[in-house]
Amino acid sequence: MQRIPEPDELMDDAAQAMAYAAADFSEANSLFVELVEQQADGALHGALLDLGCGPADIPILLAQRHAGLQIDAVDGAAAMLDLARERLARDPDMAQRIHLRCDYLPCEALAHGGYAHVVSNSLLHHLADPRVMWQTVAQCAADGANVVVMDLARPLSVVAVDGLVETYALNEADVLRRDFRNSLFAAYTVDEVAAQLAAAGLDSLDVRMVSDRHLAVCGRIG
Ligand SMILES: C[S@@+](CC[C@H](N)C(=O)[O-])C[C@H]1O[C@@H](n2cnc3c(N)ncnc32)[C@H](O)[C@@H]1O
């Protein structure tokens, strides 16, 4: 099935950002955290960069579970970062260890080679040009850094898209169902991501399916 890009890269509409932040992504978030921990052999410390952090659910989960992490959480949408800021305001320890950055990727200002971990959940399919993801990973990851990038994988057919929307978003708000459907159409396949990694020279990273609707790129730089 042919890819249909997202109508907008950034989720900068306040209502859309609020609906996203209110949704329950605990299953996907747990899977993501599990992959990040597996990739780091359980122990996460040092500087971690989260690309397209949204309302910061994942940085908060990771910081709660790993006291030695300092996290830079980047998103280009002020509406998402406002929600993230509200969450951090309720927890001074988290606010000290998670630094929110409003940056539109690609972003030269992000520290070159500065991160022991580079992670991203559900950003790749938003990017008009997927090379931005892999250029940013290559720019920011330190030698030996752990990388985990998870996203939806594009199904084979419209029927399969509708099946996933029915299974996972049946009782969600209209805006979320629409966003999920758009995201499935905009997502890449495992083969497309493998070609992106090869073109970016990121040969040490592997891509595989990790659920019925998610793919993940995992590996170590260098
Ligand atoms: C689907 S959300 C994922 C949020 C979060 N990672 C999560 O798993 O809950 C994708 C986020 O990527 C952000 N985004 C999209 N394109 C971007 C770009 N070029 N630069 C920075 N952020 C971007 C959007 O604003 C949105 O907040």
Fourth CATH level, the homologous superfamily: Vaccinia Virus protein VP39
The appropriate CATH architecture is 3-Layer(aba) Sandwich
Q: Major sheet: size, sense and barrel closure?
A: 7 strands, mixed
Shape: globular
Small molecules held by this entry: S-adenosylmethionine
What CATH calls the topology is Rossmann fold
How would you write the strand order of the largest sheet?
Answer: 3-2-1-4-5-7-6
Can I get a quick summary?
With 222 residues, the protein is an alpha/beta fold.
Structure commentary:
- There is one protein chain.
- The protein is α/β, with parallel strands linked by helices and 222 residues long.
- The protein has one domain: Vaccinia Virus protein VP39 (Rossmann fold), CATH 3.40.50.
- Helices cover 43% and strands 22% of the residues.
- It has a 7-stranded mixed sheet with strand order 3-2-1-4-5-7-6, sandwiched between helices.
- The longest helix has 14 residues.
- The mean pLDDT is 96.
- The structure holds S-adenosylmethionine.
- The site of S-adenosylmethionine has 20 residues, from helix 3.
